[in-house]
Design a protein that fits this description.
Structural class: mainly alpha
Number of helices: 21
Protein name: Glycosyltransferase RgtA/B/C/D-like domain-containing protein
Low-confidence stretches: 259-311, 324-338, 370-379, 392-397
Keywords: Membrane, Transmembrane, Transmembrane helix
Strand content: under 5%
Largest sheet: none
Mean pLDDT: 65
Order of helices and strands: HHHHHHHHHHHHHHHHHHHHH
Number of domains: 2
Number of strands: 0
Radius of gyration: 22 Å
Helix content: over 70%
Amino acid sequence: MQILGIVIFILLGYLAFNIWLIFKDEATKRDLWIICSLSYLYKLLLMLIIYLSLLYGGLNGFAFIDDQKYHEAGVKLQREWMEKGLTVDPNEVTPGFYVKNDGYYYVSGFLYFLFGEHPLIPRIFNIIISIFSLIILYSLAIEIWGRSIAKKSTLLMAFLPDISIWAGLQFKDTIVIFLVLLTLYHMTLFLYGKPFFRHIFFTILGIISLFEIRLESALFLALILVFLFITQGVSKVNKKKVILTVVIISVVFISIILPPLLDKSDIVGFGPILYSLIEKNMITDFTGLIPNFEKSSIQSVGILRHAFIFNFHDLWRLPIGMVFSVITPFPWWPVDRPLSDNIIALSTVPWLIFLPSILAGMIKFTLKQKPNNIKPLLYHALGMWFALAFFIYVFSPSRHRVEFVPLLLLIGVAFLSEQTKIKKYFWFFMGIAFFMTLTSFYIFTKI
C-alpha cells in the first residue's frame, strides 16, 4: 500500500508542474518542460540512491537526527489526526522534541495522512517543490534580466548537486528555497508596477509561511529588499511601494518575533532558540579536525546570532573558521569526516565557482561605467557587497546556506553573461556542475 502511495505521489507531482506550465507562454513552456522533466527524474534517482545507501548502511534511511525527528513527529501527528481529528497540537504529540517552527511537522503529518507513512513521501514532496522553484526562478529572472539569463540560471539550478542532495532528504531547506523565491517574485512584480493587491497578498503570505517553517528566515527579508535594489538600480522601483513594503514587513516581523522575545519561557521564539543552542551543545567546532583551528568557527551560528549569544566576545575567531570552511570544500578530504560534514562541505563548491565570477564581473562593470551613471551603479555595488557579507557571515558553514544558492546562481550567471570574454566559459562552469553531480552519486554509494 505504501509503494502505491509513493507511485501515485510521483505521478501527481509530474502532472502538477506540467499543468502549471500549460498556463505559461509558448517560449516558457519550450524552455522549461525538458529542464523540469529531466531534473525531476534526476532528483528522484539521486533520492533513491541516497535513501538505499543510508538504509543499507545501517542508518535506517536517515542522514541526521533532524530528518529522523521530522519523520517520527509527522508519523505521530498523522496517527493522532486519524484518532482525534485535525485539531491536535504537534507540541502535545511530540513532547521532548525540539519543536520550533512547528509548521513543518504539519506538512510531514499531512503528507503521511494522504499518502502513507513511508519516509520517502516527504522527500518526493521536496523534489516536487524544487521543480516549482525552478519555474519561479525562471519567471523572476525573465522579469529582471531576460530570457537568456533565465534559461542558464534555471538549467544550472536544476542539476546542481548542492540543491539536489538536500531535496532528496527530509529537511525544511527545499521548502524555504521555494518560499523565498515565491516571495521575491511577487515582491518584484508589485514594486515594479504590476497589479498591487494580488502580489502584496502573496508576498505577505510567503513571509508568514517562512516564519512558520523556519523562524530564522526572517533574516531573509533584509536580503530580499537589497536584492531588488541590486537588479538594475533604484530608478525603476516605485519608492512609495518600497516604503509601504518596509512598513508591512516590519509589522509582520514585529508581530511574530516580539511576543516570544518578551516571553522567554515559550519554546517557540528567537530568544529561547539561542539559549537552547547552548543547552544542546549545538555551538560546535566545525574545524575541530585541525587542532590549530580549534574553536575558530561556530557552526551555524553566524555573526548576528554571535552578537546575541556572546555580545561579540571573541568575534575575531569567526572569519578564520569561515575562510577555513571555504578552502576545504570537498567532502572526500579528509575522508574520516562524518556524513553531515561531508554534505555541508559540498555546499561550498558553488560558492567557489560563482563568487570569483561575481566579483570579477563587478570590478569590470564598475570600470566601464560613465561618471553620470554612478548612482545606479553605487546601489548595485553596495547591494551586492551587503548580499555577499550576508551570505558569508550569517549561515556559513551551515546547511541553511543552501537556501541562498538560487540567488547566488542567478546573480552569478547575470554577471557572467554581461562579460563578453567570460560569457563563453559558461558551459565550462556547467561542466564542473555536472562533474560534481557524478561525484555526489559516487559519494553516496560509498556510505
